[in-house]
Amino acid sequence: MNSKIKKSVCVMSGGMDSTLSAYMMKNSGYEIIAIHFNYDQRTQTKELECFHKICDKLNVLEKYVLDLDFFKQLGASALTDKNIEVPTGGVEEGIPVTYVPFRNGIFLSMAAAIAEKEGAEVISIGVVEEDSSGYPDCRESYIKSMQQSINLGTKDETNLKIEMPLVHLQKFQIVQKSLELHVPLELTWSCYKNDTQACGVCDSCRLRLNGFNVAGVKDPIDYE
To answer: Domains in the chain, ordered, with CATH?
Structure first.
């Protein structure tokens, strides 16, 4: 019996969350179509290198690397504007300066176009609502509304589901689940500032290190 191959377009940054999300899709029987965005972020080179290595581990057959120079022109975020310092002092009030305006909305729109072309039924994104940096585009309610908009704006026979398997997990649970699924955490990158050794003090490094600490295991990547 020739059953149809299930495909999932996985938005993959090279970070821990999106990598786990892709592994969960693979584990659920989906063929992975990997998509990565270069948007002139500070750690672009390192993230791209991690993405390719993770795709090799996942035996990804189809991958897209998309260059978005629009974000550099836009600026307005410490990740894309070198004139804005990446904060290293811990928790900020409100939406942090590392928020990139509507980034996930733009990524999901492009992923939807690829999913429609490739005949995929799912888009996967590693957003985390409860233990994230407070980004508005990581909220479950937002992703659900995006799913509705994507399905309204595509062909009638296109019926896409956006999977966000980590949305209610905390970082230590993400570490635990990654270990359970043999995710190559040593290939993932979270630091906002550096692309050789992780800084250990930016918001993303702090969240990651705390996750490993609470899970009671050592982070396999190098820190300054």
So the answer is: 7-215 (3.40.50.620)
